[in-house]
């Protein structure tokens, strides 16, 4: 039996065990996936080996610690400095980032290439890089300045709420944790509302509840999309690594989707 887990803190809310176990069972792979609340990210590597794992996913706040724990890094994970998937091969830990490619697939149905990110955290960081690499024009709007520095260094157009110079954006995307457990908007309503008529869609990385951001978009008759597909797609790409390519993305996804039925 191959053992897998998700490391995070908190981790009790995660749908990853259900998603992966549905896929293991449906595809006939000998695997079992649990969850592990890890307090200290520095203990990730020793915990991984002590549990006898074949692979793991990593969620908040340990993605940078997971990056540091790996022996080998996929080029994209190295570029963005965050790992959410680890696979053990011959005693070595191989690290990948599947959040950003999962998000890229989730927005593929939309044509627009001009994107406004609300937020400048870890998820925005990896996602902005992959979107730009795939021809998107990404602007970042964040509540405060410090997190923007990394983006400015990488050449992204960046604003805080105080100096925002609005343009027309095809996709407006909530990359913050505003709305995760509260009813906050990711940016002030007077900044968001004028942008809505020019947008093709408003997208949220949060899943499992309607955020105030998506409720605002719906009230203005904007198409919306939440973070469910991103979660499923990052999971399916991780599953491909876990099973060393034995199953294709398209056959994994329907089993993972059952976790949301
Ligand atoms: P971080 O903690 O790294 O970043 C948080 C960001 O949110 C910062 O830009 C912060 O702004 C901003 N922020 C927090 N609260 C507010 C608020 N009330 N108003 C305005 N801005 C706020 O978070 P992550 O990048 O790790 O995660 C971001 C979101 O992505 C989370 O909601 C997470 O659940 C979701 N996610 C979803 C995934 C999926 O598969 N669907 C996968 C991974 C993440 P400031 O810099 O000013 O503090």
How would you sum up this structure, described in words?
The protein is of the alpha/beta class and 261 residues long. The protein has 2 domains: 2-97 and 229-260, Leucine Dehydrogenase, chain A, domain 1 (Rossmann fold); 101-226, 3-Layer(aba) Sandwich (Rossmann fold), CATH 3.40.50.720. The chain contains 11 helices and 12 strands. The strands form 2 sheets. Strands 2-1-3-5-6-4 form a 6-stranded mixed beta sheet, with helices on both faces. A 6-stranded parallel beta sheet has the order 9-8-7-10-11-12, with helices on both faces. Helix 1 (16-27) links the parallel strand 1 and strand 2. Helix 1 (16-27) crosses helix 11 (249-257) and helix 5 crosses helix 6. The chain is globular, with a radius of gyration of 18 Å. The model has no long low-confidence stretch (mean pLDDT 97). The chain binds NADPH dihydro-nicotinamide-adenine-dinucleotide phosphate. NADPH dihydro-nicotinamide-adenine-dinucleotide phosphate binds at residues 60, 99, 119-124, 142-144, 147, 175-178, 180, 184, 186, 205-207, 227, 230-231, 234.
Query: Which bin fits the share of residues in helices?
Result: 25-40%
Q: Just give the CATH class of the largest domain.
A: Alpha Beta
Enumerate the distinct ligands. Answer: NADPH dihydro-nicotinamide-adenine-dinucleotide phosphate
Q: Quaternary status of these chains?
A: single chain
What order do the strands of the largest sheet run in, or round the barrel if closed?
2-1-3-5-6-4
Question: How far is the first residue's CA from the last residue's CA?
Answer: 27 Å
Largest sheet: 6 strands, mixed
CATH second-level architecture of the largest domain: 3-Layer(aba) Sandwich
Q: Unreliable stretches, pLDDT < 50, 5 or more residues? A: none
Number of strands: 12
CATH topology of the largest domain: Rossmann fold
CATH superfamily of the largest domain: Leucine Dehydrogenase, chain A, domain 1
The Rg value, from CA coordinates, equals 18 Å
Determine the structural class based on helices, strands and strand pairing. Answer: alpha/beta
Q: Give the overall average pLDDT.
A: 97
């Amino acid at each position: 039996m191959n053992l897998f887990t998700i490391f995070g803190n908190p981790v009790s809310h995660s749908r990853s065990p259900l998603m992966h176990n549905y896929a293991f069972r449906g595809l006939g792979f000998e695997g079992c996936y649990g969850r592990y609340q890890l307090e200290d990210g520095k203990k990730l590597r020793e915990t991984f080996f002590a549990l006898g794992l074949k692979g793991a996913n990593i969620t908040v706040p340990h993605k940078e610690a997971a990056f540091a724990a790996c022996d080998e890094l996929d080029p994209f994970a190295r570029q963005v400095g965050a790992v959410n998937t680890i696979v053990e091969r011959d005693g070595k830990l191989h690290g990948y980032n599947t959040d950003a490619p999962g998000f890229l697939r989730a927005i593929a149905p939309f044509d627009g290439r001009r994107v406004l990110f609300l937020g400048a955290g870890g998820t925005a960081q990896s996602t902005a890089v992959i979107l730009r690499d795939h021809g998107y024009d990404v602007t970042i709007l964040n509540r405060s300045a410090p997190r923007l520095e990394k983006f400015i260094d990488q050449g992204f157009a960046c604003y805080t709420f105080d100096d925002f110079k609005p343009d027309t954006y095809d996709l407006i995307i909530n990359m913050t944790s505003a709305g995760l457990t509260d009813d906050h908007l990711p940016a002030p309503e007077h900044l968001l509302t004028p942008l809505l008529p020019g947008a093709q869609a408003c997208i949220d990385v949060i899943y499992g509840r309607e955020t105030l951001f998506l409720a605002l978009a719906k009230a203005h008759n904007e198409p919306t999309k939440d973070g469910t597909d991103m979660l499923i797609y990052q999971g399916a790409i991780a599953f491909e690594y876990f099973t060393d390519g034995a199953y294709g993305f398209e056959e994994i996804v329907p089993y993972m989707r059952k976790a949301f039925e």
